[in-house]
Prior knowledge:
Elements: H1 2-23, H2 27-47, H3 51-76, H4 89-113, H5 128-136, H6 140-164
Amino acid sequence: MLATYLFFGLALLAVLGALGLILFKHPMNGAMSFVVTLISLAGLYALLSAKLIFAIQLIVYAGAIMSLILFIIMFLNIQERDLPIDSNRWFYLAGGIIVVAPIAGLMIKIAKSLPEEHPELIDGFGDVKTVGHLLFTEWLLPFEIVSILLLVALVGAVVLAGKRGVN
């Protein structure tokens, strides 16, 4: 019973953090909302007893990756004048609602049709051996692609900051 309340609380916190990421105007506020989402996801992994994935989520994503993102945001030194003008904000908001509403409705319909009983987790779920085996066999290429994309994003931020004349 407590696990159910914790699940819904962490899930709500994750969704609110994701909304903050989208809705906050300043990038630093959005990044902090993203940290809330990542920590909530770590809590959800803890509820699944996936100790390694919980630790990776906290150390790598909420720690290292967010430190890198925050460093880039501070390095770019984004001021209020650099942010886009809000002249079309309501147009984009209406378009977003039109796109998201049917998807949300479909997700709610699917969630209501799911069975009440909880499936058993497979043996070794979230263990070092299982995660390592999957990461370096089935998911090696996507893992390397994501690392290259992060490197390209960092280099791109530095190049953009250099063109703008930020010291």
